Amino acid sequence: xxxxxxxxxxxxxxxxxxxxxxxxxxxxxxxxxxxxxxxxxxxxxxxxxxxxxxxxxxxxxxxxxxxxxxxxxxxxxxxxxxxxxxxxxxxxxxxxxxxxxxxxxxxxxxxxxxxxxxxxxxxxxxxxxxxxxxxxxxxxxxxxxxxxxxxxxxxxxx
Length: 158
Hints:
- The protein is an alpha+beta fold.
- The protein contains 4 helices and 5 strands, in the order E-H-H-E-E-E-H-E-H.
- The protein is globular.
- The termini are far apart.
């Protein structure tokens, strides 16, 4: 398996990202609906414009197998950058082979290279397989005070 940092302008990497994102969107854990063509065709160009965005790809020969897309943020409590894992995708044929853990290791390496204080991610409450992988990689639910509970990830569509 070949691991590389995606070049959003390179045709092979663009095709891999589009393929993997298409599969992810159709999966129940990705919402179960196809992404619009304009989203897929514009994604790599848009990511290339986002400062400090990165996508780690894993290939099996020439076939895309997995990806993790990260976006750099900032921790005001640590006064340092952080890296948020926005997407993690492992194609069904490659699940159970340790690729998600490999992605997490590569993300951590990238975060350390960038001087980040932590890596964050969101995971669906019902995605127990992903939660188990993340726990094995050292992730845990975020809380400042056990009496106040864990942080919740909320959104507001615009």
